[in-house]
Amino acid sequence: MQCSWSEIAMNCFPFNIYYGEKKGDAKGLQMQSLSGLSNNSTYGGSDVRRTGSELNSLDASDNSSDSLRRNAFPNLSQRPSNLRVFTVSELKSATKNFGRSVMLGEGGFGCVYKGLIKSVDDPAKKIEIAVKQLGKRGIQGHKEWVTEVNVLGIVEHPNLVKLVGYCADDDERGIQRLLVYEYMPNRSLEHHLSPRSETPLPWSRRLKIAQDAARGLTYLHEEMDFQIIFRDFKSSNILLDEQWNAKLSDFGLARLGPSDGLTHVSTAVVGTMGYAAPEYIQTGRLTSKIDVWSYGVFLYELITGRRPLDRNRPKGEQQLLEWIRPYLSDVKKFQIILDPRLERKHLLKSAQKLAIVANRCLVRNPKNRPKMSEVLEMVDRIVESSVSTNQQPPLNSVASADDSQDTEINNKKRIMDPKPDCNWFRLWRPKLLRTC
Description:
- This protein has 13 helices and 12 strands.
- It is α+β, with helices and mostly antiparallel strands.
- Strand 8 (238-240) and strand 9 (246-248) form a beta hairpin.
- Helix 6 runs antiparallel to helix 8 (289-304), helix 6 (203-222) packs antiparallel against helix 12 (372-391) and helix 8 (289-304) runs antiparallel to helix 11.
């Protein structure tokens, strides 16, 4: 049985831990209202979100320099955008009046529906879309809607889900806020890692997804004239297109990175339990390195096939990072954490290398974590090595197999990075992140 977020906050976190916007001293910190735990869906995962702030409007609880910086965020009025503006009636027609038969899922934002609209380039042609309808979440939902429009309206990358357009209209049902995305037929990574998935993702596809996701984060962090911090990187926010290309989605919690001269942005703590970087939870100080931490957690998801936080498992296995800790010392133990649904014949060394990358992302001191461009380089090398290995014919001689086994045994104490800084495990032991 799952606990609600309110129960988690009351029962699992010590009362001397505060979450909220910085006011300058401890007295100014207050617990803010908590949103509910959303259902799993194709276009939104089970997330725990606290009151955050949008990219383009001032928040009185932020410091003045942060407010000035955020006010300068490049929005739709300052940058060209190809977004289409839809009416409610158009989207009703496209989605069979938001019928349950075309509902793709329900997340923290609201319900998501599959639809068909006419192509702008060829009116005789129809294209598939996913329409996300804002639920009754009040001003916070509206903030996330605004952020989605402003972020995806000005960024474009093969590994970011494409926002086709939006709708801001009123009808007999009240205020309507909708987002229209390209349709991703292969659903989310979370879906395919789930035990309920009929066909598990092969290792080669998992590596490709890791590569695509790293490309998307690298673009957001380093390849524009401003930096965007995702803040909610997780497997349910990685969608897969028809060719199984991975694209980051759900930018409602995204935030502009610190401006020149500043080391971080002070914000309310938002994100998803199990993915959030401990220093961010403890301080509210936001840097791009919190996305790097989340990426490290995600890599262990790919390796193990397990969720970062799963209360349906035995007590000692509920927190992924805590569970894997004893198995990282040698090859025989490491094999225990590999997803049992995977064909293990040719993936062990590749999985070990990916675990090294994950450990570097999960270094205790965020300053010592690599940038996403550095992470991408490491993942690229693993993918290239994996492809070249798989293309080689298998070794048939007994002597070669024995030599390989001897090498594996001799190296079993050197599987992980010789300097992995495994102090990151300590951050998952305190009461701050314990589960119900």
